[in-house]
Amino acid sequence: MSFLGEIKRRKVFQVAAAYAVVAWVLIEIVATIEEPLKLPDWVDTLIIVLLAFGFPITLIISWAFNLTPEGLVREPGQSESPQNHNNADVVRRSESTSDPDRVGDSRKVANEGQRTIDARRENKAAQNVDDIDKTEQTDHVDLLKRVDSVTPSPIPDRPSIAVLPFQTLAGGPDQEYLADGVVEAITAGLSCIRSFFVIARNSAFTFKNRTANAVDIGKELGVAYLLEGSVQHAGERIRITVQLIETRAGAHIWAKHYDGTIDDVFDLQDRITEKVAGELQPSIRFAEIERSRRKRPQDQSAYDFTMRAMRHVWALDRGECEKALDLLDKALAIEPDYPLALSLAGWCRAQRAVYNWAEDIAGSHAQAQKLAERAATLSGDDPMILTVLGTVHTMVRKFGTARVLLERAVTLDPNAAWAWQRLGWLETYLDHPEQALEHFARALRLSPLDPMNFNVHAGMGSAYEVAKNYDEAVLQYQRALEEQPHAEWIFRHLASALSGANRMVEAKQAYTEMTKRYPNLTAAKVREAMVYSDSMVDQVITNLKALGLPD
Length: 551
Known about the structure:
By secondary structure, the protein is of the alpha/beta class. Among the domains are: 73 residues; 186 residues, TolB, N-terminal domain (Rossmann fold, 3-Layer(aba) Sandwich), CATH 3.40.50; 100 residues, Tetratricopeptide repeat domain (Serine Threonine Protein Phosphatase 5, Tetratricopeptide repeat). The protein contains 25 helices and eight strands. The strands form two sheets. Strands 3, 4, 5, 6, 7 and 8 form a six-stranded mixed beta sheet that branches. Strands 1-2 form a two-stranded antiparallel ribbon. The radius of gyration is 29 Å and the shape is elongated.
């Protein structure tokens, strides 16, 4: 931060202006009462001299201290300021300190974290995450009537953390996938520790390239701690720098950097995960950290291609899906047995079928199932891979297998928002709308800022449509399209729900939008693509036929 910016941050200008106003008022008062009280002439001079001496003293105090509800406290230095989270400062702060753990031992961190949690309990009446189900079921009867029932609730009484996007300090923008992969691995590792409440990666990534206050981020995400950092990549060498921040006051708990080579980046990730776990809750056993490790490809290039593909996969968009498949095919050409690439490729091919993007729907189903089954034989303990596999099996209508995979995923990682979302879709396809809405509500609770939440709202719309609550279904489909306008497949559902609600003018408008994107869509293609029960598919086709859908 520049010197002028630091002066502004410490409110020196405001203090100077306030001092000038008070001084002027004081001088005017003395001038007014001087003659009636017969004060000596030197009183004016004394007042002016005292005010002149007091001015620089006041500015020095305003620079060094800050007035808070707790009293006068020392203003943190520029490098300690929580006001501007610029990850580039992390390297300078950590490298300037010979002992990065100087801030305190794990007992101090645990006590500070407990004070944060106690304060939140008093102010927000926070609940334990294990009681989420009970809270969400309080209005169980109204789940099919009210959207507000899925509003995220206060955080549970446990150590809570969000891993913010890391900044790439060297290597250029095309190396951002490496920093994103590090954050993904750390988030996944921490999420597997059952005693942690971890904000999902996609919600944390909404703060990428944003300047924000640590306290404000903590309030918005509902967490007691933030982990931020940077990645430097030069040739085969890599440096990962991290710092842990307590969000109540923006205090830095510790900062450290880890050096290695591109070949052992996964070991660096594990060391960082273990360090954060130790600072937050010293009693956590190292065995839990070991269980959070993933099976990884031996060839780094396969990992590169897969990391680059992931953002395209999540988009649920026809063009993005093709980009993802191209990258995943390259990864599998290098490492044919990489489970994450196999499962993501299977999901992309399943998307082509279920969203009516492929002419050969049966062929896409077969390809998706083949890839999923191959990935399942290679990795059975990675929550993310299990969720992808569960999604693929859901889309090819192998619901029993899908349930086993998804329930295992949330057992291994209770904070897996996407797994809860996919369980919601599974219950929707099985005509269990109430259970589906409970799962969708939990997904929103765990990841309230997730860019993929448009798919949660689309799922809620489908659950309401299964329950024939068409008006609520319309609201959810419209919300989904507002969040992701390119999710063209949602128009099939929106047109059907509007038709079912007998809102024919709006229904015809939605149907027109659908036919622009699917000019050759027929009832037979809809029936082949959709995963719903026969009765639900019949209902959708009947509604669309009323708008002109050909057989």
